[in-house]
Design brief:
GO molecular function: oxidoreductase activity
Protein name: DsbA family oxidoreductase
Pfam families: DSBA (PF01323)
Number of strands: 6
Number of helices: 9
Distance between the termini: 6 Å
Oligomer: single chain
Strand order of the largest sheet: 2-1-5-6
Order of helices and strands: EHEEHHEHHHHHEEH
Helix content: 40-55%
């Protein structure tokens, strides 16, 4: 089989397990030395599609959505911070952290894909939210993220009022949901197999090894 290994990552920019999972996948790819054989595309998934513009305190939101106590949340945050640190990513949780609406971010990630900057913008937004305590639903923050990765910020932001661009995000969200993706991160390999969750590096290596070997058959 010729061509690259296509990996669709269904995720949200405010999902902590998505960045941990991606970093583990990245480590697997790097340690195998197959960067040139892999093509990654990020697919939209909103953890909180009905989140209002003003957002919601993270502790309140998680308590309402998952029933987690404050103590359980803090333990989970400490666990994620440790996992992130092992992968070179900083989780900087704080008391007034707010969960925002990420639809605009997904529109901009669609724009960035056309310029080969999708992964770069995604990581910039995730870092802004988790490491820099910034609101990724704030258009000023979005504009700065676009500038940081070398994109035309004004052109990109104009997509937020483009009905076709917004419909495309919705269409992609529906596509993956209709295929049964209901939690993130979900990693889809060559549109034929998938793993869900922030799997261990060894798991990603096993999947990738099988896909690399299949290319030579």
């Amino acid at each position: 089989m010729d061509g690259k290994i296509k990996i669709d990552i269904v995720s949200d920019v405010v999902c902590p397990w998505c960045i941990i999972g991606y970093k583990r996948l990245e480590k697997a790819i790097s340690e195998m030395g197959i960067e040139d054989l892999v093509e990654i595309e990020w697919q939209p998934f909103e953890l909180n599609p009905n989140m209002p513009v003003e957002g919601q305190n993270v502790h309140e939101h998680i308590a309402e959505k998952y029933g987690s106590s404050l103590e359980q949340q803090k333990e989970s945050q400490q666990f994620m911070a440790k996992a992130g640190a092992e992968l070179g990513f900083t989780f900087n949780y704080y008391e007034e952290m707010r969960m925002g609406n990420t639809f605009d971010a997904h529109v901009l990630l669609g724009y960035a894909k056309d310029f080969g900057k999708q992964t770069e913008l995604n990581l910039r937004l995730i870092t802004a939210f988790f490491s820099e305590q910034k609101d990724v639903s704030d258009r000023a923050i979005l504009k700065q993220a676009l500038l940081d990765v070398g994109l035309n910020a004004d052109e990109a932001l104009s997509k937020l009022a483009d009905e076709n661009a917004r419909k495309e995000v919705k269409s992609k969200e529906n596509y993956w949901r209709d295929l049964g993706v209901n939690s993130v991160p979900t990693f889809v390999f060559n549109r034929t197999s998938a793993v869900t969750g922030a799997q261990a590096v060894a798991v990603f290596k096993q999947v990738l090894t099988e896909l690399v070997e299949a290319r030579t058959i």
